Amino acid sequence: MNNNHDGKNLLFAGVGGQGILLVSELAARAAIHAGFDAKKTEVHGAAQRGGSVVSHVRFAPKVYSPLSPAGEVDILLSLEKLEALRWAHYVRDGGLIVINDEIRVPARLTDKPVDYPQNIEQFLMSKGYRIVCVDANSVATELGNYRAANTVLMGAMAEHTGLGDEHWIAVMKESLNPKLLELNLKAFEKGKELLVATHAKIPNPK
Known about the structure:
alpha/beta
């Protein structure tokens, strides 16, 4: 199959239970469905305890390593704001960061209060990244299940990958539980609509 670009480096970040590994798997499969070579890897950390989870996906005509070097990721999808900040150094100058508008204060090991960083989106934008912030949890809840927030974010990201919608839809149909397919297809489409609504707010890369 002929492709009209050389591929992308993607990074997916969140905390345990948010479905990061699912959307990264769907992205890798969508790239393969489009005719690319793709490789994926993930770091679970203390996922079951609400710890950080990150997954790399790289696709191109030929991929030799699943890990993107720092500063070379084209798109970071983060299901939690602090995780966007934590992994932003992997994103290239002018790269895109799609952020779920959710705050999860890290688990405390002491009785001292945790200072959660403020104005994360503005800070990242000041560093030259393009930022899209989506309230994916609310959208997914309106569709019937807040757990589809990851698919909402995936829809918001999909256009920027260069992979056609037909590839994403095909792998969702192949991979997802039939009972959840309709919900996730709606979540994907809603994410695409949200991207269109916010597209004018995304500054052009340098």
